[in-house]
Each structure stands twice: as structure tokens, then as C-alpha cells.
Amino acid sequence: MRTSSRHRVAARMMAAIGVVSLMAACSGNGAGSGNGGATGGGYPDKNITFVVPFSAGGPTDTVTRMIAEPMAAKLGAKIVVQNVEGAGGTVGAGEVARAQPDGYTVLMHHIGMSTAPALYKDLGYKPLEDFGTVGLVTEVPMTVVARKDFAPATLQDLVAHVKANAGKVTLANAGIGAASHLCGLLFQSAAGVKLQEVPYEGTGPALTDLVGGQVDFMCDQTTNTSGQISAGEVKAYAVTTPERVKSLPDVPTTAEAGLPKLQVSVWHGLYVPAGTPQEVVQKLSEALKAALADRAVVDQMAKLGTTPVPAEDATPQAHRDKLQEQLGTWAKVIADAGVKAS
Ligand code: MLT
């Protein structure tokens, strides 16, 4: 992209920074402007921004903040997490695609990176061409959850209820192309129903409205629904994985609950703009591996129903292979479902 445009993006990011900052246990890493990043030699010598393309408090934000601190410690630099939400993650992803390829702007994205090209007509970026992959992070199961006073007691009751109340039941999602949107599509296709969908800008606000009873149900990641399920703030019908989730032992799988076709889990990965020096990508990948082996991260993920990927998947190549495979898979699912975001 053009340099002026890159500068505009960088300026906008700097202006919006400050949502949360995670300081590594080190000094002398202020916002210096050394040129080490251009070749990777002295990287990192200033703050690194991790862009989350969804709202604060959602699953992507949760996973990012979990790994940011140990990654910062390993890199010896400060990592600032910035939420750039909108359009199912495509606004934040687009900003990173257009950022300077110097390793100081990094994107955390999930399965939505592989679904957006099939959903959006004018995406403005190409996942395989405009990004470098750093490594996979985790794969998160999803849950079908409802407001706690919603009448259906089981997943099969839910299907019967939505069939009997066509047009009245509301299904929340975190935006077109969000994981919750995809899971909602899979639910509708598995159950043979068509629902009234209510898109939000992220799971944070969607879940708030679900707990508050403004929408009926949604499908979202255990990283953000586990707490509410355990606290009884939402009703859980099923987890969308072949096995039950250890931290939610009483919640049946979709297969056990009578909807075996509803299977999906949400993979996350770290990206940099294409053209980022190889040494920089390597340093980020090593820091990612260290974070995923960190005891506190492993324990925190386990409580939220997930696990870090094995070390060999926290690599640029494994991540690229996964992205390539998923782009093909979702292009077909989305074409079959006949869904378009714009
Ligand atoms: C989020 O962070 O809000 C979610 O990952 C959104 C989603 O994809 O459902």
C-alpha cells in the first residue's frame, strides 16, 4: 500500500492506543524510533501493538491479553492491545494489512480470517497475500447458550421451539463473519430453521445483552461463556466439539444432545503485514511458543475450556497451512449456505 496511507493507519492506531497496556519486566523500551525493525536486527526497540479486530471483553480479546504479557516478557518490549472492531473482524484486519511491515503491528485473528473472503465482496485485503503468518495460538470450543429464563430446557427443545416460533426467536452474533455468526449458520442448517439474527460488534456486547435478556440465544466460545455458564447467568445447551469440555463437565456435546452436524471450534492465529522481515516473524513466533508453554497461560486456558496449540503449530508454516486449508473449507460451506455480508 501507499506510504501516506500507512502513516495514516499508524497515526490512527497511536491515537487509539491506551485501552490496555502490558508492560514487560524490563526497562528502556519506550516508543523509541530506532531503525532496527526495518531489517529485524534490533527488533524490538519500541512498543508493539497487538490489534484485536473485535470489542474488548470478547473471546479474541481474552486470548490476546492472556498471551500478551508472557510474549512481552520474552521479547523484552511493551505490548499494547488495541481493539479495532467492526464488520466481523474485517476492519481491524484491514488496518493491519495496510500497516508498516516492521513487526510493530501484529494482528490476532480467528477463524474469521478464513471466512471473510467468501462473505465480503470488497474485503480490501487477501489473507494469504497481504499477511505473514506467525503461528497458531489455540482452538476454542463453542457453546450454544441462551438467556437464563428462555423456555427450552434442552437442545432438542430449542430446535422444536424455534420451529414453532418462526420469526420470533432472536439469535445474537458478534457481526457478519464472526465465529458466533458462523456457528449460528451451522445451527440453522443442522436444525433446518431460519432465524432472526441480531449482529453486534463483538461477543462482549452480545453476551451482555444475552445475560440481560434482550436476545434469546447465541453460540459462542467457551473462553467467554464458561464464566456465565458456571455462574448460572446463561443456560447452556451444548458444546460444539466431539468431546465434552473438561471445565464444563455437565454440558453435553451437540452429538449427545441430538444435533451431531453442529461441530465447530474456533482457531486463532497471529499475523503481521506481508513483507515483515523473516527474523522479526521468527522472534514473534519464538515468543508465542514461550507464552503458550507458560504455566499461567495453560491454567487460565484450561479454566476457559481450551488449550494452547502444540509448539509445532505455533509456527509460520503450520499457521499458513491451516489458513490455506480453512479458506477452501469455508468458501464451500458459505457458498452452500448462500450467505453474503455485502
Ligand atoms: C470476539 O472476540 O468478540 C469474538 O471472537 C467474536 C466472534 O467471532 O464471535
Automatic annotation (TrEMBL):
Domain of life: Bacteria
Keyword terms, alphabetized: Signal
Transmembrane segments: none
Pfam families cross-referenced by the UniProt entry: TctC
Signal peptide coordinates: 1-24
Similarity comment: family membership: Belongs to the UPF0065 (bug) family.
Protein name: Tripartite tricarboxylate transporter substrate-binding protein
